[in-house]
Amino acid sequence: MLGGMTVLVFLDPLHPHGRIVDASKPQLMATDLGATRGDGVFESMLARDGKPRKLQAHLERMATSAASLELKIPAPVQWERAIETAIACHNEEDTASELVVKLLVTRGVEGASAPTAWVQVSAVTRKSRQQRETGLAVTLLDRGYNSAAAERAPWLLMGAKTLSYAVNMAALRYAHAAGFDDAIFTSSDGMVLEGPTSTVLLATDRDGVKTLQTPLLKSGVLPGTTQGALFAAANAAGWRLGYGPLVPQDLFDADGVWLASSIRLLAPVNSIDGQSLSTTSDSGSALTVELTALLESAL
Ligand code: PLP
Q1: What residues are in contact with ligand 1 under a 6 Å CB criterion?
Q2: 209 alpha carbon to ligand 1 midpoint, in Å?
Q3: Which terminal Cβ of the chain has fewer Cβ within 10 Å, N or C?
Q4: What is the pTM of this model?
């Protein structure tokens, strides 16, 4: 049983608004290719006051991820209805104002030809909310690929949000065991990539010119929906934007560094491998406040 209340709604052609199931009971076939091979894709989004945020961006990214696996998934309208059912069902029991809405779809049961798809809704954890405030001590971890691997070897599915997250979870455990809160992957040729569950952002403020940067997309990072929304809002507010390539020294030289993701939003990076960053200075904190406000306006 997951901590707190969890609602599961399966997408089912016989139930146009989704089929609510008991999350405390087994619901997947043991031969589901999602379970046996991690063969599927997923999305995690935030819902505030019952409304999923950046829904279209998440549905579009899931469609792109699925296409890279040649996986046929249910249409957006079916997801939208199941999400509505799941949020309503959660709200009947629990009044948490922030929810995690996960969309999951696998290649289905071995031998069958239909995907297995469901929506999972639960409350945002206290830890996620705390890390927005307290910030993170981060370590750099080698991803083991060079920054050209994604282009050279598309079968590695590097820019897709697949269910094969065991490596990402192992990286987080490795970081935690070494006393860090989170990690930033680097490529074997020394480029900054992404966090195991987040996008890296850095800001500089030089003579009043504010620039927001993120690593090069074609280096195999997941295109972040939070980064996308924040970049659009920052651009409209007069910020300059940059898309890498970035090396670790750029993080140490920046006026602020953050890990951005849909649930935790903007978590300040306080230090990298024990070296304090400018994010913790007064001007860094002011940038966190400014960027958080821009992100809130975009959600
Ligand atoms: N990069 C990876 C590997 C992720 O797993 C995630 C989110 O889970 C992100 C980046 C951030 O994406 P988003 O802002 O769309 O949540």
Answers
A1: 44, 194, 197-199, 222, 224-227, 260-262
A2: 28
A3: N
A4: 0.96
